Known about the structure:
Strand content: 5-15%
CATH superfamily of the largest domain: 3-Deoxy-D-manno-octulosonic-acid transferase, N-terminal domain
CATH topology of the largest domain: Rossmann fold
Largest sheet: 7 strands, parallel
Distance between the termini: 36 Å
Amino acid sequence: MMLSLYRWATTLGGPAIRFYLDRRMARGKEDPERFGERLGRAGRPRPAGPVVWMHAASVGEAISVLPLIERVRAMRPDSAVLLTTGTVTSARLMAKRLPEGALHQFVPVDRVAYVRAFLDHWQPDLALWAESEFWPNLIGETAKRGVPIVLVNGRVSDRSFVRWRRHRKTIGKILGGFKLCLGQSQMDAERLGELGAPAVAAPGNLKLAAPPLPADPATLADLKAQVAGRPVWVAASTHAGEEALCGRVHRQLALSHPGLLTLIVPRHPDRGPGIAQELAAEGLVVARRSAGGAITAATDVYVADTIGELGLFYRLAGVAFIGKSLVPLGGQNPLEAACLDCAVLFGPHMGNFREIAARLKESGGAEEVADEAALVAVLGRLLTDGEARRGQGAAASAFAKAEARVLERIVGELAPFLEGLPAGKDGHARA
Length: 431
């Protein structure tokens, strides 16, 4: 019943959907030059041969599937990989990061007419769905065409599990469109099975296989010269409320650590001007990267409000605080900092990365800070004790490298589907 109502609402609600999308475009959340892709109109021709369609919601999910895209291309070089995401930021990043043989499109809005136009053009032979983007029309229409769909790195948060258990019939029908659901953890796999997935497995978290974030060597050398030996820490992927907190932390620690430089990399770069204004109002000297600001001896806080440069700042700082974790929003991926030898700190709200966070703590590579006062205390200790800082960073790096084998297990689960892709020039849907 709920799925029928949803389908009816999205079919008849075309004008309302267009109004919503126009509002998003006015706020810079849609790309006007590629807006047709959100309506199912392709921005480029379909390549010849099999097409493996991967869908990842946004930046984090898209980065996590990059190693998988490379492996798919290595196993089936006759196939193309189509990656869809839903955000402007992820599209810009993927334009720089996608390997040869892969292309990006914006995912169509989940309206039947848009979905059918998308599928008519791309005619995918296999669909790999990342994490928890359960769009009913996209999944249902794809399954109707006989395209195998596999959920990769599936995640069911505590809140989602409680909600979906109240609507078992609905989520069961959606999950029934998947041939296989691969959970990030055993708990995720068990939850997917309980909610109605026909087949589940738990090969591990794909985020553990992500390669180190890139950094341009010349740019890194220039930034190191600007820092010139100052004590440095980075607050990465921060959200509203955390930047002001980091500013207060800086003011306290600067009393005992002369020359301290705080790097803030907001999760959403468009917030950069507001962050800089907020911190400057507190008396801090702030430079903003997107505005061309340089790090000088007087700079207290450097706001790195650019896309795809987080790898620079993890390499620049020996200590990294992971944002979205001192506010109750579920945290961000700590492994990106861990694999670049950072001593990792995060708050108590790491529900989106619960298993990784717990195991990283057990390895000695990370510490949890309960609040602002705890962040001041732990960060102050690590800035003072270089040996402890480097030891924690080394433990974090060792943990990240040891877990990279998860990719082999995931590829093993996907092998029958990849081997089943059609041979020859034209692929499944064009046969």
